[in-house]
Design a protein that fits this description.
With 248 residues, the protein is an alpha+beta fold. It contains 9 helices and 10 strands. α4 packs antiparallel against α5, α6 runs antiparallel to α7 and α6 packs across α8.
Length: 248
C-alpha cells in the first residue's frame, strides 16, 4: 500500500503513498476521535494557514485511515537538530507561525474551555484541586483564537522553498491562545529540552506582548487536562505541575 513509513506515533502509523500521506490508526483507536481529527483538519484548511488537505477517510484491512496530501520537506525539529547554530532563528520562525495560527478564526471548532473542563473532571486529582482548577479556568478571559493543541517543531514541515505547513490538527480548538502557549512550553519540558522551553516562552511573550505570569497561570490548568491521556511517567510529570502551583 505504501512506499515508506514517515512516522510512528502512539496508536497510529503514517505512510507515504505516492502524493498522499496515509495515517493508519490501530484497531482499538476510538472511531469518534479519528473522525473528529479528519473534521478538524478539514475545518482549518481555509483559515490562511498551510495545512495538508484531507483527501478521504477510509478503512484499510479493517483499520481506519485518514488520507491527506503528502508534503515533502523536513520537520522543524529535524532542522533544529541538523543545524544547532541556527536553532534560535528556527525558534523565531516557530513562534511567528504559532502567532499566525492564533490570529486565525474558525468558529466551527470546538471550544477550548469545554474540552479542558471535561478533561479536568476526569483527571486523577482530588475534588478540592479539581474545583480550584475549574474555578481558575472559568475566571480566564474568553477568546476565540485558533489553538492547535499540540504545536511543536515535529508538527511543522518546511518545504524546499521554505514554506511551512502545520500538521496534526487532532487537538485543535478555539479559545485563549495563552493556553496553547502553555501546552507548547510543557511539550518542550516533556522532551527534556528545558533550555528551549524557557527561550520559547520568553520569545513568545516578547513578540506577542504577553505577560509571562499570565501564561504561567494557565500551566496547572493545561497540565491537568493533558494528564488524562498518555504514558504513566508523563502523567506523573504533568500532575506535578498541578500540585506545585498556589491557587491565589
Amino acid at each position: 500500500m505504501a512506499d515508506r513509513i514517515i512516522a510512528v506515533r502512539t496508536g497510529k502509523t503514517v505512510y507515504r503513498d505516492g502524493d498522499t500521506a496515509v495515517k493508519v490508526f490501530d484497531a482499538d483507536y476510538a472511531k469518534p476521535d479519528i473522525l473528529s481529527e479528519a473534521l478538524n483538519q478539514a475545518r482549518v484548511e481555509d483559515i490562511g494557514i498551510n495545512v495538508p488537505k484531507v483527501i478521504e477517510v477510509k478503512t484499510i484491512d479493517g483499520k481506519w485511515a485518514i488520507v491527506s496530501e503528502y508534503i515533502a520537506g523536513k520537520t522543524l525539529a529535524q532542522l533544529m537538530e541538523e543545524n544547532p547554530k541556527e536553532k534560535d532563528e528556527y525558534l523565531e520562525q516557530f513562534v511567528d507561525l504559532q502567532m499566525k495560527v492564533h490570529a486565525a478564526k474558525c468558529p466551527v471548532l470546538n471550544k477550548l474551555k469545554d474540552k479542558m473542563n471535561m478533561k479536568i473532571s476526569t483527571a486523577e486529582l482530588d475534588a478540592t484541586t479539581r474545583y480550584e482548577l475549574h474555578t481558575r479556568l472559568e475566571s480566564m478571559p474568553k477568546h476565540n483564537k485558533v489553538c492547535h493543541g499540540d504545536f511543536n517543531p515535529s508538527n511543522i514541515i518546511i518545504t524546499e522553498d521554505g514554506t511551512p505547513f502545520v500538521l496534526d490538527w487532532s487537538h485543535a480548538t478555539q479559545g485563549n491562545a495563552s493556553a496553547d502557549v502553555a501546552r507548547t512550553y510543557l511539550l518542550f519540558w516533556l522532551s527534556g529540552d528545558i533550555d528551549t522551553a524557557e527561550k520559547y516562552l520568553d520569545l513568545f511573550c516578547k513578540k506577542s506582548d504577553t505577560a509571562k505570569q499570565y501564561i504561567q497561570k494557565w500551566l496547572p490548568i493545561v497540565a491537568a487536562s493533558q494528564s488524562v491521556k498518555g504514558k504513566k511517567e508523563e502523567r506523573e510529570f504533568l500532575l506535578s505541575w498541578v500540585n506545585v502551583v498556589d491557587y491565589q
